[in-house]
Amino acid sequence: MGKRWVATIDLETLEVETDPTFKFKCVEDCGRCCRELEVPLRDEDIEEIEELGYNAWEFVDYDKAFYRGDKFIGYAIKKRPFDDACVFLDPETNKCRIYQHRPLACRLYPFVFIKHGKKMKIYVKMDSFCPGLNHPDGEPITKELLLREYGDIIEEYHAKVVNGSS
Ligand code: SF4
Questions:
Q1: Based on the domain organization, do 50 and 78 belong to the same domain?
Q2: Domain extent at residue 15
Q3: What is the mean pLDDT of the segment spanning 42-59?
Q4: Are residue 166 and residue 116 in the same domain, yes or no?
Q5: pLDDT for residue 157 is more than 90
Q6: Is a pLDDT exceeding 80 seen at residue 165?
Q7: Which residue is closest in CA terms to ligand 1's atom 8?
Q8: Separation of 165 CA from ligand 1 center, angstroms?
Q9: Which of 49, 83, 120, 148 is 20 to 30 Å apart from 107, CA to CA?
Q10: Residue to mutate, 32, 108, 127, ligand 1, most ligand atoms under 8 Å from C-beta
Q11: What does pTM read for this prediction?
């Protein structure tokens, strides 16, 4: 599946340009992305989950590694053998057991953030299994939505650009 541009944030001024025709709503208890996707874990994700009392061997799949070009990104989150879902997806409630502490890749999905100089371009992965894409009750992508859901990430990049460290 391809990806589609939905927004650009100017990291200096925080002005946002969006595609007003796209809407999104994560469908409660759907959990399809928890089965369909392989999730990369950053070191920070592993540390945060370990702080909840889990051991890395319980949730890190050291046989699956992600690379960007020749750069190692991280290992994958473990899938359970009986239904190929993430080990943290509760099989009874279909909810994530570590939702408030989920890895960055899960937080971002279905969006992809790509920095180009002083601009952050946001794309959406048009995965056919995700019923939230252009959902009739979906919310358009606006500056308010981006700041509400991803304000900490945007602020981090904004600070780096304003301070000249990026
Ligand atoms: S597949 Fe889409 S709608 Fe379903 S849980 Fe994942 S993001 Fe939400």
A1: yes
A2: 1-30+109-166
A3: 97
A4: yes
A5: yes
A6: no
A7: 26
A8: 35
A9: 83
A10: 32
A11: 0.91
